[in-house]
Hints:
It is a single chain. With about 180 residues, this protein is α+β, with helices and mostly antiparallel strands. The chain has a domain at about 5-130: Gcn5-related N-acetyltransferase (GNAT) (Aminopeptidase, 3-Layer(aba) Sandwich), CATH 3.40.630.30. Helix content is about 25%, strand content about 35%. The protein contains four helices and eight strands; from the N terminus they run E-E-H-H-E-E-E-H-E-H-E-E. It has helices at about 30-45, 55-65, 115-130, 145-150, and strands at about 5-10, 20-25, 70-75, 80-90, 100-105, 135-140, 155-165, 170-180. The chain has an eight-stranded mixed sheet with strand order 1-2-3-4-5-6-8-7. Helix 1 (about 30-45) crosses helix 2. It starts with 6 loop residues before the first strand and ends with a strand. Residues about 10-15 have low confidence and may be disordered. Bound molecules: coenzyme A. The site of coenzyme A (COA) has 22 residues, from helix 1, strand 5, helix 3, strand 6 and helix 4.
Amino acid sequence: MSSGAGRIFGPRAINCFTVFSIRTATPADVPHITHIYNQGIEDGIATLEYPLKSEGDMRVWFDDHGERYPVIIATWGDEVVGWAALNPYSHRCAYDGVADLSIYVRRDQRGDGLGQLLMQEIERRAVLHGFHKIVLFALTANGDGRRLYDRRGFREVGIFREQGKLNGKYVDVLVMEKLVKNT
Ligand SMILES: CC(C)(COP(=O)(O)OP(=O)(O)OC[C@H]1O[C@@H](n2cnc3c(N)ncnc32)[C@H](O)[C@@H]1OP(=O)(O)O)[C@@H](O)C(=O)NCCC(=O)NCCS
């Protein structure tokens, strides 16, 4: 079963001639994935990860994904403008059907529908790879992320109070889930 073929989306809006492609990421994309991820870290509402990641850090992360956990990228011409990934949720066999989501859009491309396209494709890949559910963990301050997840039909599971530290202060973390089987 092949899930790696590129897919063309767009034009995404009237009066817009931009055409995005979404495809499986390759090792050559890691520098761009790193750059976009570091923008998310700098923004301070996307992730608790700190400090910024090196390409080496992200290469290890990328190589750990293997066959079952796709990393996909969105391109606009030759430019990588966003990425999404399914990550292992737990090493326990009972949770084999659960994947954890990451999604990052380049700062200058946000709010224009790219997140929706990446989510649509990563959910399709999740089904192809036999996952039953996607879960995600988001900072409660991340309103853009929340709007996207709501729109994609994710359900709020709850909020971990003071779950992790950001800039030295404990912050709350929102947990959401979506059953993807048969969708
Ligand atoms: C969260 C994120 C992935 C959403 O991707 P996106 O391409 O901006 O999302 P979309 O354009 O598909 O928009 C989804 C919704 O959020 C709104 N939105 C997202 N970003 C916005 C922005 N910067 N300004 C205004 N609205 C925004 C869109 O209008 C849309 O709302 P609607 O469906 O009610 O119209 C992106 O903003 C991002 O990369 N943020 C930083 C990293 C991050 O927070 N990742 C998630 C970690 S949990």
